[in-house]
Specification:
heterotrimer, A alpha/beta (200), B mainly alpha (244), C mainly alpha (222), A: 200 residues, alpha/beta, 6-stranded mixed beta sheet, 3-stranded antiparallel beta sheet, C: 222 residues, mainly alpha, 11 helices, 81% helix
Chain lengths: 200, 244, 222
Amino acid sequence: MALAVEGLVCIRGERQLFSDVNFRLAAGEALLLRGPNGSGKSSLLRLLAGFLPAASGRVLRDEEARLFYVGHQDAVKPQLSTEDNLVFWARLLGLDDAEAQRQSVAALEAAGLSRQRRLPGRYLSAGQKRRLALARLLVAPADLWLLDEPTNALDTAAVAWLGGVLATHRTSGGMVILASHVDVPLPDARRLDLPEGRLS
Amino acid sequence: MLHALANPARFLRLMGAIRPYAAAVAVIGLVVGLGWGLLYSPPDYQQGETVRIMYIHVPAAWMAMFIYAAMAVASATALIWRHPVAELAAKASAPVGAAFTLICLITGSLWGKPMWGTWWVWDARLTSMLILFFLYLGYIALWEAFDDPSRAGRAAAILALVGAVNLPIIKFSVDWWNTLHQPASVMTLAGPKIHPDILWPLLITAIGAKGYYVWVLSLRVRAEILQRQARILRFSAATDRRAG
Amino acid sequence: MMKVFLAIVGRDLRLGFGAQGAMMTTLLFFVLAVSLFPLGVGPEPQILARIAAGVIWVAALLAAMLSLDRLFQTDQEDGTLDLLAQAPLPLGLVALAKTLAHWLTTGLPLTMIAPLLAVMMQMDLAVMPVLLLALLLGTPSLSLIGAIGAALTLGARRGAVLVPLITLPLVIPVLIFGVGAVEAASYGLTASPHLLLLGAFLAGTLTLSPFAIAGAIKLALE
């Protein structure tokens, strides 16, 4: 599994965010997107997730490769319990009820949300909601994770937990593309500066 | 052909070349057609002079439907081939179509007073025109509701297509409704029997109205293209200032 | 695929029936709107019976519009729309699942409470089965066409006003055939042409609107 991006151009509305973005990513590799606000980090992630069409250029990846996109919104329904929020995502991925339940409980355990399992989403703190959003990554395996500002509202312990999750994912051959304006524990990640598209 | 037209500069040149002819067709067609119809055509043996309203009412109704169809074709072109000028053409058509629809409604109402003794009658044609007017207004309102013009354009294009698919059904249902409640009423052009003295001015007016549509459309699309270029220039000037 | 479809329907039903859900508001609006007519036109039974079918259908149309603007909007605002778009289900079917949930929480309850309002409006009891059948065939079309409007206005200014504005002209056939069915039955004629037309309209909207809704949602995902 690998990902190749060639000559990508992104136009939002009527303005060009970036042009000629090129990079390749092999199994186990990570790419960190950096750049000022409005430089197109989020748009590049949405483009790779398939939500946004590219103005030009192409994205090459295996047809079967599975990708998860976690945006900067938590997508937590205030009326549903923490567990039901996660179970819904698991069922959305096609897991049957028992399996969805089992994976959700395990993911909540890992995210340190076991005690909040039955708590409606509206009572969760911002950091807890963020952890719930990230726990979605643990419910089912995927080859490529696209993460938009994943550390927002996380405390130091939770950032460290996320670092561990990312490391495990990469060890098993997964790829990560992550946009962040703060430091994220992502050792030997390559770095793409937007909007210039400079790779380092 | 399509992709050549997609280029705004070429489109502007083409439109610039067509515009004088469209303007000539519009002026000659409307002056001759309306002059003939309003001044020199025979009065109707039943309706008398009132029948002359038809020379405005019927071409306006034709244009109202023709422009909606044109809008739907432009919208389909915009969605399928991502054709930026088609989107603007659809946008520029809507107010023109809405205006013709309104003219049709007003003349229908004016004609209703002497004929039926009331300003408004829920006759099948007028009712369909009223619904068409609502469809135009909805389309325009959707265009106006977005800050991002490219988003607005594609949403409006989907709406225009949904409307175009639905319009024949609406027309059918209104006719159906009308026959249930009252007999179908007048101002119909009974096909083959129609007298040439009525038909010719009508056709000439209709051609003039089409010329007028092309003329106004080319002006409005040009304005839209220039406005978009101005927005882009203003934006890049603002970012340059920020960067510098 | 069916499992995923049902997961979406199930979640939306839970959200719709809950305290935050719009189901009760919609029903109350429907009852209130119909109750205003006797106050407006007077209580003469003949007049009420004459306008009953039209009043009930118009009120149902308006009530169905009431909660439409929120159909996709809450999911877009909190980021759930991104999750739905990642489901292994074509976006058109995702939209259909959400629309089904909308109908189950608006169109179906409206239909079930309509006989009560029909009695209040002095409608002939013999006509009731036709009214129910017409509502059952007509209200899904309202949800389907309404969902197009809801998806098109995602992220628009004044979406709540805009949805009825662009949707109501498109559902006029439902109103005409729906009222036609009830009136035909009340004159002792057969209602089946009207009901068949309602069914045909539903078949058309059921096939075509998922494409329009999916297209509109794709615009909102960008």
